[in-house]
Structure to design on (301 residues):
């Protein structure tokens, strides 16, 4: 049985359909990426899952219990960071953790949690949050999301404001918790970082789920592409198209896909007396795969 089951959820804002028959699951220990363009319904869906927003029809079940706007009993083992964390400017990081742990029967160990999220320095026990950088506030928000020793953590744009090292460390923290059985539902516009982390993807567009898949399954949309720099890129593009392949010129490189294999491309270009100066094979790109799926969905409307 899935840890989280969202089934046939509908939500209207006036005449606009914010959630249209939304259905997906999240299993224990899995990291699921909820991705789509701005306004697709990602934050609305996350708010419904965390009991912050009502919905018109359907059901949300977490750990065997129903979740609605008026029923929050199941949420004691769910953590979340949606949009920006609620930070009180005159409280320290430690005071925030104590505050958010007040209604929790078995909160996480404060010291251990501050170490995991890298807010364990002496200054963070004394300095007020009004003096925190955006990255510091984001790390504190993640610590707050983990205060309940949750089975499921909902994170909306958790990498906002973090420097590259902090993003790397956050990935490591999330992966280590997932290995211990904690599930994650994460939305982020940093698709290259999300690609390094998630096990499964849920694609949402115009308030509808258009695909759910493992990362391996999802990458099947992305055809193998070859990126070439040649002595005559324009001629290489035209030659590729004349062979029935997809070809574009992007930032001084020729992008080719649709050929049976790489040798076919090399033979055709060399045969036209065009010199290949560099060559790379590209596949398994989350951003490219997402754009392809969204474009296909928009055409089908």
């Amino acid at each position: 049985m899935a840890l989280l089951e969202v089934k046939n959820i509908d939500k209207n804002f006036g005449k606009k359909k914010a959630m249209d028959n939304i259905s997906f699951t999240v299993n224990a220990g899995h990291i699921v990426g909820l991705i789509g363009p701005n306004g697709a319904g990602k934050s609305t869906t996350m708010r419904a899952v965390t009991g912050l927003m009502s919905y018109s029809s359907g059901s949300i079940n977490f750990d065997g219990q129903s979740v609605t706007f008026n029923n929050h009993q199941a949420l004691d083992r769910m953590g979340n960071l949606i949009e920006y964390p609620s930070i009180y400017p005159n409280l320290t990081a430690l005071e925030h953790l104590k505050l958010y742990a007040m209604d929790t029967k078995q909160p996480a160990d404060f010291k251990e949690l501050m170490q995991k999220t890298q807010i364990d320095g002496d200054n963070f026990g004394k300095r007020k949050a009004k003096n925190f950088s955006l990255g510091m506030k984001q790390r504190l928000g993640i610590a707050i999301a983990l205060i309940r020793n949750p089975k499921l953590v909902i994170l909306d744009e958790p990498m906002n404001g973090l420097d590259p090292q902090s993003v790397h460390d956050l990935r490591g923290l999330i992966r280590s918790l997932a290995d211990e059985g904690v599930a994650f539902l994460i939305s982020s516009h940093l698709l290259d970082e999300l690609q390094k982390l998630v096990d499964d993807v849920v694609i949402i567009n115009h308030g509808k789920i258009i695909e759910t898949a493992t990362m391996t399954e999802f990458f099947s949309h992305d055809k193998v592409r070859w990126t070439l720099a040649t002595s005559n890129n324009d001629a290489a593009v035209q030659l590729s198209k004349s062979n029935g392949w997809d070809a574009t010129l992007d930032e001084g490189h020729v992008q080719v896909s649709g050929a049976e294999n790489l040798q076919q491309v090399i033979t055709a270009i060399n045969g036209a007396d065009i010199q290949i100066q560099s060559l790379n094979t590209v596949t398994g790109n989350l951003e490219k795969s997402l754009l392809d799926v969204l474009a296909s969905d928009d055409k089908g409307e």
About this structure: The first strand starts at residue 4 and ends at 13.
